[in-house]
Amino acid sequence: MAAKTTADSASIRAGAARGVLAVTHQNRTIDWILEHRPQWVSHTESTALLYGTLRHLFYLRNTVATFLHKPFRDKDLDLYSLLLVGAYQLLWSDKPVHAIINETVSAASKLRKPWAKGLINAVLRRLAEVADSLNYPDQTFDHPPWLLQTLQQDYPHQWQQLAMANNTQAPMVLRVNLNQNTRQEYATLLTQHGIAHQLGVSEQAIVLEQPLPSHQLPGWQQGKVAVQDMGAQYAATVLHNTLQQHATAQATQNGQLLRVLDACAAPGGKLAHFLELCSARPTQSNSHIETIAIDISQPRIDATQGIFARLGHHQGIQRGDACQLDWWDRQPFDYVLMDAPCSGTGTIRRHPDIKVLLSADAISSHSATQLSMLHNLWQTLAPGGTLLYCTCSLLQAENDAVISRFLETNNKHANVQQIQLPSGFATRHGWQLLPTESHTDGFYYALLHKQ
Ligand SMILES: C[S@@+](CC[C@H](N)C(=O)[O-])C[C@H]1O[C@@H](n2cnc3c(N)ncnc32)[C@H](O)[C@@H]1O
Q: Which of 31, 296, 354 is the pocket-test mutation for ligand 1 (most atoms within 8 Å of CB)?
């Protein structure tokens, strides 16, 4: 029985090592692994090892290098990845050292390289001997140098806290589906199921004390709840509040049609939230709200249809490129949500692979796309309409800088509207949420009114 346990533990480590290799040397994301190689992460421990190793990859690489006489050959990078997984566990877990070393050594056989057992054993033993004298994690921020420099430049007083926050585990936040229940009703249901939680700052949010697989949440299949970061939940709230205010201020005619576009809609989290708010809180003038959703990615559109079906939303989503206008029926929109494709640097806690896969060049390319998309979508907005620009990025290049460049050519028609959210801070043109505060990821919002 004990031998079987070691064998299983070895498979868990080998799976995590294969995952680390796929990210570091094959340009794969963790999401790709979860979808296409679920066998590597079928155990919660292998998932935890994969995330943990990637979170601390930069420190682990440097530390392990001091015990190696020469780098691994390309064909043995799976062993190198295994060594990193073992080193991560030695430095960041409470598991007994002998168990970690034995199981990691056995995993070399799972990778069909039993000849490397001696090497893995020797390196991990030497690391274990010096572990107490290492100053991790204070010694490093575990970010690629270019990203750390950019954070330092954008947040001269906060970059260290941000980098440290990026290396923590994000909370699991739920959004209660108002079409099905109130937040209080769902919180009661969680209590009845013994799931510890607290109410979030944003109105439909509940923060779980411990993450758990979403299908284990009560009422999941019936669509009572969705998983959505609290920072992301402000998008629908801001859009819906703006719509309510305008409908009231402009004395919108009773039953008037308001058209709303979600231009980068998949997987539909913000749109679903918006639909829930619209049906739970109709405008005073009972405006009829028509929502059009597009996204460029067919697989993501397909996934969104399933999510909407679970939540009970009868909302279509069509394939379209938000940098083009061929999908547009030429009827202007009163509200546009542009949840831009971006670096995701505000979500590094949930996606530590971003630190490995992202490059400085990708940031310039993202901001060019964001600007071009913004110019394009602006044409679809009716005079008097409002566009909400958002990213899950911490970087100014994708946030205020994009809005500044947009305003340089559109200042006669575009007017920045102030936003204020419960955490984060006002920027030149919008509002920045940070992963250091109030259970939110890093998010940026800017609200533009068309004159
Ligand atoms: C940040 S995600 C959107 C998340 C979504 N709004 C939600 O709340 O669930 C960005 C989306 O933009 C889509 N996208 C990227 N480039 C696009 C383009 N040129 N036109 C339309 N969608 C695009 C991606 O496929 C991705 O689904």
A: 296
Distance 304 CA to ligand 1 centre (A): 11
* Cα–Cα dist 398/382, whole Å: 25
Catalytic residue numbers, as ranges? 392
Please tell me the number of Cα atoms within 13 Å of 73 on its side-chain side.
3
The DSSP line for 357-397 is H--HHHHHHHHHHHHHHHHHHHTTEEEEEEEEEEES---GG
What is the pLDDT of the chain when averaged over all its residues? 93
Distance 149 CA to ligand 1 centre (A): 27
User: What residue's CA is closest to ligand 1, atom 27?
Assistant: 266
| Domain spans, the chain | 2-133, 173-227, 230-450
Pocket of ligand 1 (CB under 6 A): 264-270, 294-297, 300, 321-323, 339, 341
CA nearest ligand 1 atom 15, residue:
341
Tokens of 268: 């539909």
Pairing relationship of beta strands 333-339 and 381-391 according to DSSP bridges: parallel
Contacts of 428 (CB under 8 A, 6+ apart): 400, 403, 404
State whether residue 203 is helix, strand or coil: coil
What's the CA-to-centroid distance between 268 and ligand 1, angstroms?
A: 9
Ligand 1 atom 12: the closest Cα is on which residue? 264
Atom of ligand 1 nearest to the CA of 322: 20
pLDDT tier at 4 (50, 70, 90 boundaries)? very low
Amino acid letter, 229: D
What CATH code would you report for 230-450? 3.40.50.150
Tens-place pLDDT, residues 208-248: 999 999 999 999 999 999 999 999 999 999 999 999 887 77
Distances (CA, A) of 235 to 227, 402, 438: 15, 18, 16
What's the gap in Å between 219 CA and the centre of ligand 1? 28
Q: Which atom of ligand 1 is nearest to 271's Cα?
A: 8
Looking at this protein, which amino acid is placed at residue 174? Answer: L
Q: Between 266 and 437, whose confidence is greater? A: 266
d(CA 190, CA 184): 10
Class of domain 2-133: mainly alpha
Confidence (pTM): 0.93
Fold of 173-227: Alpha-Beta Plaits (3.30.70)
